[in-house]
Amino acid sequence: MSGQQMAREFAAQMSVRGGRWRLYVVLLNTTEQWPEYPFTATVPTFMERAEALSVLGFEPVPGAEWTWTEDSETYGDPSSPVVLIAATRVRSRAEVAA
């Protein structure tokens, strides 16, 4: 990759459904399938998340932090179970190495 081009940035998100956490990279404006990594039932540690991103071919953007958002499972229903979504900015390891 030339000095003028920078690696594209994407959002990596992590959520839980059915007691199992999964991490996925949101590839908007593409026809590519979003890379996904399933975890065990426990909340993944920072290092486990970094390893999962590496397996998927991504790395956190320097200085990026994980943010946590609370949502509801059923939109607009305040009695709905809570859904936690974590997100951070990532970039393709292949594009960084080029």
Describe the structure.
By secondary structure, this protein is α+β, with helices and mostly antiparallel strands. 16% of the residues lie in helices and 40% in strands. Strands 1, 2, 3, 4, 5 and 6 form a six-stranded antiparallel beta sheet that branches. β1 and β2 form a beta hairpin. The longest helix has 11 residues. The protein is globular, with a radius of gyration of 15 Å. 13% of the residues are buried. The mean pLDDT is 88.
Notable features of this structure?
single chain, 98 residues, alpha+beta, six-stranded antiparallel sheet, 2 helices, 16% helix, globular
In brief, what are we looking at here?
With 98 residues, the chain is an alpha+beta fold. The protein has two helices and six strands, in the order βββαβββα. Strands 1, 2, 3, 4, 5 and 6 form a six-stranded antiparallel beta sheet that branches.
Instruction: Identify low-pLDDT runs.
Output: none
SSE order, as H and E? EEEHEEEH
**How many strand units?**
6
Strand percentage, roughly?
Answer: 35-45%
The shape is globular
Mean pLDDT figure = 88
Gyration radius, rounded = 15 Å
Helicity level, as a percent range? 10-25%
Largest sheet: 6 strands, antiparallel
Distance between the termini: 5 Å
Query: Which secondary-structure class do the elements indicate?
Result: alpha+beta
| Number of contiguous helices | 2
